[in-house]
User: Fold these one by one.
Assistant:
Number 1:
Amino acid sequence: MSRLKRALSNINRKKLLDEDVLETQLERCLTTWDLTLLGIGAMIGSGLFVLTEVAANTAGPSVSLSYFIAGIAALLAAICYAEFGARIPKAGSAYIFAYVAVGEIWAFLVGWNILLEYVVGAAATAKAFSGYFDELTGGYINQFIIDTLLGGEEWQSDIFSEFPDIMAALLIVILIILVSSGAALSTKLNSVVVVTSLGLVVFMFVTSMFYADVSNWSVGNGYFAYGFTGTLSGAATCFYAYLGFEVIAVSGEEAKTPAKSIPLATIYSFTVSASCYILASIGLT
């Protein structure tokens, strides 16, 4: 019986933090502005891929309202992350939060789920980038890989891709090198990418306004083409667009003033990201 109690005590033991939670071996070099751009960079992008699908089949023109509702729900979750990040400014995200708050076994489960999330997310994003880039070349890159490595015949498999996506793998390797080089360099690169992305979204909205037809919001069933239930269903899908906000809390150990920067960066990044998604959905519909 004592062994059982000791085992239960061990798997539920909590991590004790140093007296000075701000003490770290990492360089505290990130400002509120840097964390805001990190959050925007994590959220802006994937949501635009689901925009057309939700607008066409789930919510109709009210997809802009779907993004707003999803943004509010995601912001509430992000504020919880921000509070943890401000109180426990350590690298590790939900893993370290769970370790400190509820115990080792739960941190173990949460940590492996986070790892799985990042692996699957990185693979899916790299695959999507590879496909889009290959289309810009007229399919030359992937066809070259198939002809060179597979003798012109694609793999026949229900599990694996039709061919080894070398470009996607190369992209991941490059990003690993950039991230491993330190927060300062990777943050500067992220800032350039984020500004470019925001510029493209704004350009898309402004351009679409020249071709806007307000009657699109009144034909058929109008703004709520699939009813308000469709809008709520669309919000459930649009919630995916805001995933990635945890990167702000994850970076707390490298923030100069985490208690101040993490909450502010969370609110700022959500405001910008939600605005971009709503503007893009208005322009599209």
Note: Residues 25-284 form a domain with the Amino acid/polyamine transporter I fold (CATH 1.20.1740.10).
Number 2:
Amino acid sequence: MTRTNVSTDQLTLLSLKSQISSDPFHYLDESWSLNISVCHWVGVTCGSRHQRVKALNFSNMALTGRIPRDFGNLTFLVSLDLGSNNFQGNLPQEMAHLRRLKFLDLSLNKFRGEIPSWFGLLHQLQYVSLRNNSFTGSLPSSYFNISKLETLDLAYNSLKGQIQKEIGSIENLRYLNLDGNKLIRTIPPAISNASRLKLLDLSRNSFQGSIPEGIGNLHNLNLLSIEDNQLTGSIPFTIFNISRIKVVSFAINILSGNLHNDVCNGLPILKRLYLSRNKLHGHMPTSLSNCSQLQILSLSENDFDGRIHSEIGRLSNLQTLNLGYNHFTGIYVLSYEY
């Protein structure tokens, strides 16, 4: 790479502007002028020390275009937000030169091609969102070398293959969203080593096998969703010991077995429990009435039987109760949705 300076930054941004085919609100047309310092252009922030471009925020500008190859010349870039636009094409490999990058949001665009493995070279990355694009290929193992990574959101792409066991080695990972892809095989037990996870969403893939018992060791989880897969076996009881969890969804799988009678005894702030469309059986646990914060309880389309216990009426915060298409006996409780 050539030696860069603020003039290089300006030329690079002009190159980006030349690749913008549609700017309906004229954000760039009106402000990106050679008569104004690049540090005062719309969407551009410079560092106070070197006056180099430090951050770009073009989110929600309805821009259509591509990222040019010389984009990698923005070597002082720390934050890049292109979210909610219409950027297209592949990401240029030259972006691997953005070694200071900490924040990267390319969500809700039309990027395509294999998900870049060279992101693994950007060791300062803390936040990566590529959700709602058209990336393909498998989850690169190089991502597991980014020790500072806290958020990895790859939801709603076309990623294939399996999650490698090294996923548990990202020690600072707090938010992992792989919802809406084409991932297969089993969920690696090593995922339970990512002990700081607060959100884990693996929904709408093609995972098989059982839910790893170790997920119950993720004591910082607020949300756990693995709905709409092909999971079998029973729900590990350890999951109901995650005291900080607010949302649990295993709906639309092939899970069987009883729902443990102590469910909710260790979940003081659970707000939503989705278990519908499985093969769960047995009686409805009376301990469900201990989930005092519960707002949504969905147990429909299973094989539950027995009576619907009256203690369920103690759930004063309940807004949605779905119990239909089971084998309950006695007085039938209609399902209401508000």
Note: Residues 332-338 have pLDDT under 50 and may be disordered.
